[in-house]
Structure formats: structure tokens, C-alpha cells
TrEMBL record:
HAMAP family (UniProt xref): UPF0291
Compartment(s): Cytoplasm
One Pfam family here: DUF896
Primary localization class, coarse: cytoplasm
Keywords: Cytoplasm
InterPro entries for this protein: DUF896 (IPR009242)
Keyword Ribosomal protein recorded: no
Family: Belongs to the UPF0291 family.
This protein's name: UPF0291 protein GHI93_04275
Species for this entry: Lactococcus hircilactis
């Protein structure tokens, strides 16, 4: 789930309008929906990055937590 550049531009436009004069009830609702979509997108991207991490100690030994290794195996990211 991602968010388009147009949606980000609309979020910013609504933020500027709110700061300069205020939003209508419909614009406030639109802003809330767009913000939620943006936050969900950021959380999803962050989760994906964390789930793809492999931790290695100074000696080159894989020290990735077992829970993360299992999740990676389920998703086909690890053998």
C-alpha cells in the first residue's frame, strides 16, 4: 500500500490552507483520510524494512532473533 505524489501534494495543500484560513468540514474529512493513508503507508514501509533485516555480530555470526527469522522464512525471504 503506497501513497502517490499527488496525494502528498494534496495533504500539503490542505495543511497550508488550514494554516492560512481554515478548512471546510469536507476538506477536514479529506485531510484526515489522506493523513491516515500516509501514516499507514509509512508504517507498512517501516515494517517491511525491519522484517528484511539480518543482524550479524562482529565475528560474522547471524544473531537475528528467532522470531524474525521465522517470519522471514514464512515470507520466503530466508531459507
Amino acid at each position: 500500500m503506497g501513497i502517490s505524489n499527488e496525494q502528498i501534494e494534496r495533504i500539503n495543500a490542505l495543511a497550508r490552507k488550514k494554516k492560512n484560513g481554515g478548512l471546510t468540514a469536507q476538506e477536514q474529512e479529506e485531510q484526515a483520510v489522506l493523513r491516515r493513508a500516509y501514516i499507514d503507508s509509512v508504517k507498512s514501509n517501516f515494517r517491511s524494512q525491519v522484517e528484511n533485516i539480518k543482524l550479524v555480530d562482529d565475528n560474522g555470526k547471524d544473531i537475528t532473533p528467532k522470531k524474525l527469522k521465522n517470519l522471514q522464512k514464512e515470507r520466503g525471504l530466508r531459507e
